[in-house]
Each structure stands twice: as C-alpha cells, then as structure tokens.
Amino acid sequence: MKLLIRSAQIIDKKSPFNGQIKDILIEGKNIKSIGDKLDAGDAEVIEADGLCVSAGWVDMRVASRDPGFEHKEDLTSVRAAASHGGFTEIVLLPNTEPVVHSKDTLNYIRQSGSGGLVKLHVAASVTRKAEGVDFTEMIDLHEAGAIAFTDGEHPVQNADLFLKTILYLQPLNALLMNRPEDRQLTLYGQMHEGLTSTLIGMKGIPSLAEEMMLNRDLKLLEYALEKSMYKSDSPALHVSLISTKRAVELIREAKKNGLPVSCDIAAHQVAFTDSDLIDFDTNLKVNPPFRSAEDVKAIREALADGTIDAIVSDHNPHDEESKNLEFDHADFGITGLETAFSLAFMYSGLSLEDIIEKFTSGPRRILRLQDPLLEEGALANLTFFEKDTNWTFTKSFSKSKNTPFLGQELRGKVRGVVNNGKQEWYL
C-alpha cells in the first residue's frame, strides 16, 4: 500500500504536529513522511475538505455474539461496523456461546481478527460460563492473549470471587473489568427508577444498585492492594458503564486517594435521559438505563475533569425478535459502534481533542496497549474524520438494527481508517 493523504488536520495531544494541517505519506504499514506539499509519486491520493486525523480509535466494550449467536452479529459484520465507526481496535466481551472461558474459544476469535483492518482484542471471563461460580484458568488465558478479564454482561456478584480475582491478577499485571450492579436490587427492572418510571408504570432500576456495588468493589480493591506485594501504575480495576452522579463521586474520590481504578461511559449515555422513554421505544432500553438530567450533568463534568477515562460504544446487537415486542419483554442494549463518535461530539460537551483522547490514549493506557504515534517511521494506525459534517445514518453495517439513530441526522463523520497495511474510505 502506498497512500498520500492531503491536508489533514492532526488531532493528537502527544504529536508535535497537533493542530497542524499536514500531508501524510504511508508506505506499507508505516508512516513514511509528514510534511507540506509532499510528492505523491505513484501513491494513491486521498483529499477531502475539513479532513482530520488521529491515532486509531479503540472501543473497550463490544458484544460480537460470535460464536453462538451469529444471526445477531458475527466477526465479519462487527469489524465492518467498527471500521465505519472509526475504530481500528475493539475489545470483545466473553458473552458468546460457548463463553470465552477456554483457550480454544479465545484463539478462535483472536485468529479470526489477526492481520485485519480492525484488530480484535478478547476479554476472557472471570468465571466459567460467566455464571459467577467457578474461576476460569486465568493464568493460562492471560498467557494465551486475553487482554482483560470480565464476566461482561454479568457483573460479579460474589464479593469473595471479586476479591480473589483482584489478588490473582495482580502478579500478572492484568486488568479486571466489572460493571457495578446489584442484581437483587435490579430484579425485573426496566428503566431508571424515577418520576418517568412511576408515571408509565414500569419497574425501576434504582441508582443505589450501581452505587452500592461500586462502593463494595472499591473497598475490596483497597483491601486487596493492602494484602498484595505487587504494585503497578496501571489500573487494577476498570469500572464499566458508570451512569449516576454518586458513582462519579465515588470514582473521583477513589482516584484522589490513589486507588488504581479507571472507568468509562457509553457514548449514548449522555444523549438521553429517562424522560425520553415515555413512548416505550425499546431501542432506548439499555443497561445501565438512561438516568436523570442531574446524572447526565455529572457525567459531562466528570468527562471534562478526567474522572472518566474512556468513552465506549457498548455495542450490543439484537435481532428483531429480541427488540420488536412489549417494552418489558425486550432485551437491553443498542448497537453503537457506528454512532459513538458522533454522539460524543454532539452531547459530551468535550473539546475535539479531549474526545479523541477518550477514544485513543485513554483506553490504551487502561488496556496496557502501546499508543500509535503520528510521526515518521511509526506504524500507520489512523482514523480519519470530519468534525463539522452533518450526515444521516441511513445504513448500518451491523447485522442488527437496534439503534434509535437510524434515519437521524448526526454531526461528526468518520471518513476512513488505516491499519495493518490496509485501508477503507467512506468519502
């Protein structure tokens, strides 16, 4: 591959070219030159008004459904959705059939994603079948390439299992990811517990279920580190999908006290509040649920001050039979890979530089991945986009269409990705 990108604004706080408009020449898998009016020679030339470029984006939370539920999403379609959303690397949750609790399933997914435009990282389950009962062989899975450990869509409920997992992973400098939710408190819940749930007669999901479990997890993390002889600058616990004001405060306080913890939010979490569910749109049924306006305000503040480290898509594909039915029978989740950047740009309140950081260096720091650099000689792992372009989301490349944004006009458009000597453009 020989490719010249004309006049792209570099958005990368670590780059000496940050904010500058430059030509970028790519040969093979590497950046050959960065400069002004570079000679194209025999290179393919890409040029578009308002084009921006950053390091390739990383999504830390994606459900692929393959193996086992390929009718909802498979590894080919999830990579297509990811590239159209600007992601060159994605982390797949272990909630497949079989669950990623063995090296065989782990290797099947990793080998399917090796060498492609979108790199597939695989998170292995903490417990067998993600049932929260018996541990997996975490050391073997770590050595086989698991990027992190999580029961994914099933929060770890057992305090002893959670504590021992932290202790087991510390010598490996491996990451535990957990979504805080007390399942006893959310049983039969359909949406955020508040005025709207009362008005429309839906069983609510209380904020307390998230906050109480998060407080437990942070206390257990603190206890485990007191017992452990291993120290690391990397987060030992990553808290997935926080959604409440009090959860933000707990994370902020934990970081202030020096706990090695990080967290993320789903891009769609700042686009809606619980009042938007008044019409029973099942495409707005997500977990954690859309919360109150006060919670959304707190999340935006936490994004701005760095309490929240990353933004994820929480891509959760479902077929028609799982969504097109009564609200209380519909499954939780929306597809998000293709719209995550636009939603962050439209609703987060962050500057463009800060948004890109939440998609690039933030996730990579948590996952112990090396940051791709925008400099000559570096590997070309790049995402190209336009920040001021309005576009209508008319076609999804996911197999599933459970998104409230189809047919909607969005702002901020991905134009292409380059990675591993391959390229795709959406000009």
Automatic annotation (TrEMBL):
Pfam families according to UniProt: Amidohydro_1 (PF01979), DHOase (PF12890)
CDD domains attached to this UniProt entry: DHOase_IIa
Domain Dihydroorotase catalytic span(s) in chain numbering: 55-224
GO biological process: purine nucleobase catabolic process; pyrimidine nucleotide biosynthetic process
Gene Ontology CC terms: cytoplasm
Gene Ontology molecular function, alphabetical: allantoinase activity; dihydroorotase activity; metal ion binding
Alphabetized UniProt keyword annotations: Pyrimidine biosynthesis
Domain Amidohydrolase-related: 236-422
Keyword ATP-binding: no
InterPro entries: Amidohydro-rel, DHOase, DHOase/Allantoinase_Hydrolase, DHOase_cat, Metal-dep_hydrolase_composite, Metal_Hydrolase
PANTHER family recorded: ALLANTOINASE
Name of this protein: Dihydroorotase
Species assigned in the record: Dyadobacter fanqingshengii
